[in-house]
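Researcher: Structure for this, please.
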Amino acid sequence: MATHEPGHAITPPHPVNNDSTQAVYTSAWTHRADIVYMDHGAFGGVPATVMAAQTAIRRRIEEDPHNFFERSFPAELQRSKEALARFLRCDVAGLVLVPGATHAMNIVIHSQRFQPGDEIVTTDHAYSSVKMALDTVAARDGAIVRVATVPFPSKGDDEVVAAIEAQLSPRTKFAVIDHLPSRSALIFPIARIVSNLEARGIEVLVDGAHAPGMIELDVAAINAPYYVANCHKWMCSPRGIGFIHVRADRHTQLRPLVVARSPHMVNRGAFSPLQHAFDWLGTTDPSAYLSIPAVIEFLETLMPGGYPELVKRNHDIAIKARTLLCETLNIPEPCPEHMIGCMSTMPLPDTIGPQREGMLPLQRRLWDEFRCQMPVYAWPTHPRRVFRISVQAFNFWKQYEWLAEVMKGCLPECFEGIDRPRKPRGPPDANGNGKDGNERSLLPNGGSSGAGGSAGGSTGGSTQNGGSRQNGSAPNGSGPKLNGATLLYPSPRTQSLSTRPSTASTLTSQGCLDPYVSSALSPSSSNTPPQPPPPKHPTAELTDPTIDDLQILSLLRIVSSIPLPSSPRTLPPPPLLFPTAAHKSAGCWTAFHDLETEAARMRYTLGTFPERGVPASCAPVVAALLADCALGADVLAAWPTVAGELRALCRDEGLRLLEQHSRPPTPPADDGALAKSAFSATIIPYATLPASPTTPNLALSLWTAALAAAAHALSTNTTTHLPSFLSIHSFLLDPLSSPSVPPARQLTAFHALLTSFMTDHAPLHPLTPHSWQSVAAQLAAESAWLGIKKLHKVAHVQFVAHQQLTYVYVTLDHLHRAEFSMPARVLELVRELLAAAGELIVGGVCIAPVTVTYCRSLSEDGRKFKTIIDGNNRATALVLLRFLALHYTSASTSTSTPSPSYLARYTTARGLGKKWLTDVTAALHALLACPMTLAAVAAARQSAALTRFARVKKIPALVTEEARFQTVWVAGAGERQGEGVKLLQPVQQTVFSTRGVRVAIPAKGQSHGRSLGYRALPVRW
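Model: Predicted structure, token format:
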């Protein structure tokens, strides 16, 4: 048997990924480049960012071990458990962290007591260690272990349930059932099984070792007495993290294997018996446990759609890969699709020869000859055997096509008496897909991945990878098109720019709409030389535009950012995203050049405002990175080694900020509201390291180095480390609240814009290094903008002078706020809105849009929320009018005066929080004291105008990014914290908008600058 050695050619050669988005997912792990890793399900795999976070935790522990274990550890452990409980959808009081699922199983099993003759049921799919633990306890107590034979292949859920129930008897006291067994990789109908067994009085332990991270798990819904699992497998945590979830009625039933003191010496009554018994098992390294928030953040931000998209993506590829492998090897698909997560086990012809110890010959051959890590098991018993594939984000479609060819060569016994290696897939669909067995598509609408085979018999220009498509059409036959190309973000809406230039740049591709499977975007096959679009204003506003329209506007700004000193522009620049910089002084423009470009704006912001510098806590790490770069290191290549530590430092800094802004509880008034004076208006900035003759400006130095490296990468068509550039850009904009959008979503937009620019624009301009820096910076800004999820539902785009104003609709009850309104102005708006409603016959009342930005919570959950940064008076007026409309349409209150206490119940039911309640209550008190407004309300009640506001749900909003502003604090100087505060740091908007933190900016307490106009739009129900 041939053995792979250095220089030995592997046939067929390993698959090569050419897709830049997939490259981001693959590079998140640190697997060897010379292997094909298809066994994530065995031992998991820790992403680089999680390793960095764990390293930072270890470093922090060693800085002062005594302080950490005596003071910090209990609270940090609790935060990790709370994050895990949210992820698992279970209560934290019943959650116990242990070194692994095997450890957890032993705790539960050894805590049980049986009488002689009692029966314990498990299945032949159970993990071998589980069976060993059951045999040990059964021997101790004289119990009997019965093993249910669950058929594999399986016809479905009923067959699983029937096999288990066939082993039950009146003496059955305990059952250990897998949720997702390792060997068969089937998803058992576990909630149904638990319910059936508990109805018979049988105690149930669920082994869910593979479930967290593979499926969207809801532990509470399963409702098992005991649920155990690993975090190191599909959650990608460091190894050494498992958990037990114990239902509330079983908290006193478990005994730890190691008896030790409780770490909870303060406020002992706040912790459950489980937490006292299990949270301290001696002095061990807790860094794995404390990295859980970083693990969950990785899962939720790796892909644009968060964790649900990761689950769906892996499941979809697993199903398609299973189909391909089964058809290639002429074996039946072993179970229905709903019983598969992102692992799939498939049966093989029986092993030839006697049973052997160790690795089966086929698995050994896969490794020795092909450097492929994939398990092959003798299961359930020799000579039967199975193989199992695992799909994680680092895997891509071409690997499974490659595996099919390898397995076909290794298993000739699969084709005895068969003339062809694959079965036909049946008749093609409407698009011609699935015509023969070589076609394997994971594209959303059934299109070809472009890697081998023909796309349903179409003809025309060839694709990059050897497939074919009709010239100028997308293989999947759907999605909006411009100049015959399919754009990146498909949308059912077809509204487009009314004056879009005929040569506007688009994303020509091989139909690569699926970032998981397809190869890199390829240039257009057209022979017509590309022409740049003229950078000019559209002549009309856009109603219900698509994301493609916004993408084209972004591309125009990228082209316009290129400095052309020798040939001044004769055409007006494209519309610029609000906020713009036209109001900046001439001196600033002279010093920093075109402040409407991202490159100049970043230099201006980082070089002018010390408050926008690197946090002091992060300064040593950034300084060390820059020192390495001065010695020749590539800043983009080195960034991932420090990014995790910086993220941890910034998270700690954010939590400190929240704590510093908190103030003691203030008793509410009788109506449940707080006085506005109960909210602190003190701005507490995080410390930054000011530049001096001996201390460089770290933020500006980091930006300069990163921009130069990114420009070089773009000019040489090297994109490997561009995600690091986007990460640095996000970090410098807002260190504590970044990233403003999921990195994967931004990277997708970045590559889309870059591909279009390189295809249709870059060849027309001999770009200098300085020009490439302008392009890189603008790409970062525009991709961050396009990465905002809400932009897929834009309602209107308005062009006012040189500004582009993008409006969406937001749910009123979901809005956070940092600033109080002015009651007098609120009442003016109430009267104006009632008058406008009285004149309407149909439709909603039109209002000027509020201005919103997106913030990321500084707490462990890191959730995003929308907050109002301008338009608090309008929002308060609408909430007050809606309350009045509902008050007067209620039978019990139709004749009474609106009550502040009723308003408190109303805002609580809506989930608006204390700040909203305080603000709207102040406006209500002002209304009750204002005869003019009371008369307007009474008249509106008579005319039914008031009832128009009863169902107000969504309001128009101008979408902005807080980090783009230089927000000035204009409240009284006596309320400022420190002499050096000139402007608010972007994170202050997050702090002051966080519900539960008793802080609020007084009305007119901050100045953002406003747009040069607005478009009034109707409210929606």
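Researcher: Any notable elements?
Model: The two ends are 71 Å apart (CA to CA). Residues 325 and 404 are 5 Å apart (CA to CA).
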